[in-house]
Request: fold
Amino acid sequence: MCRDPDTGRIGLHGYNNSCCRNWKRIFQYFSEKQLAIGAMHSTMNSNAPMPEHFTNERRYNPFSRFLKGRFGTKVYRVTVDAGFTCPNVDGTVTVGGCVYCDNRSFSPNRRLPRTTIREQVRRGVTLLENRYGAHQFLAYFQAATNTYASVERLKRLYDEALDHPQIIGLAIGTRPDCVPEAVLDLLQKYARDRFVCLELGLQSIHDRSLDWMNRGHYFDAFTDAVARCQGRGLHLCVHVILGLPGESRADMLATADAIAAMPVHSVKIHNLHVVRETPMEQMYYDGKVRMLERDEYVRIVCDFLERLPVEMVIDRLNGDAPPDYLVAPLWCLDKPALLHAIHEELDRRDSWQGKHRSLAGGVKV
Reply:
């Protein structure tokens, strides 16, 4: 693998430029594994009806249903901010960060005075208990790259979150180039008796898009990370963005097909949106990037869902930001209306998550 021995990160920015990129071989392995599994079911009816656990209101497999099925009750995420940065911010792989990102726009704790993990958990649990009557929670390390530190520091922070008696597991957002073996070994230990969701920011399989957004890694980093996570008891979640500049419908659906062929458990789908004080804000005002209209996004996200396996968990169907941070598109401020439109489009098509995946693990064309 093209991996730095000290950091575990992969990519072509700043190190190991002479290494041969091998993501195609890894991806081919995952694809062949999917085909082998699908071949065992080749005698099934290709015109199968909508899965029984789907409903007309939810023609996909939502994260809330998955958690309730696993734990027997509703489980909520308590977001915490450990003050991490990212390797494309601090100069390790590049500088400037992702062109669309301001952590304050999606992490409430980054908009508040910094406090301890223990206090953030206590505050979040109390809020969700009072609002929803909730009793069990995941500690969600959300902002920035939450594996980008020494194992000793990570263990101290994760342990502090897990110390609360109502925290039953961890959700950890990170980059695929920031999960060295020592970190995965640590997460594997937690996963022996806790639920551990590792969220990997893929965004797109297309390297030109990753260059545009200044990620500082390529798709090979993602395939390598997924391969090294296997057999560790981790719930793998993939983040993707739809509507990236230069990506056609076919490009976006190629990302769906790649995710569907890999051993991951869930996906968060975001519409590209502009937040204030980011490099993309000026690009937007200069006319260099265009946001999808709501109807465009509804159609493409339904196309995307149709190509994912029915068992894959859907953690999110949209991206948004608080009104004082959002520049565009304004339609993503009304999340209930957007979700309603997605449900209506699936109903109009008489379609659902996975409908256009063939039994052999591919996509109907």
Observations:
- The longest helix spans residues 23-39.
- The radius of gyration is 20 Å.
- The longest strand covers residues 195-203.
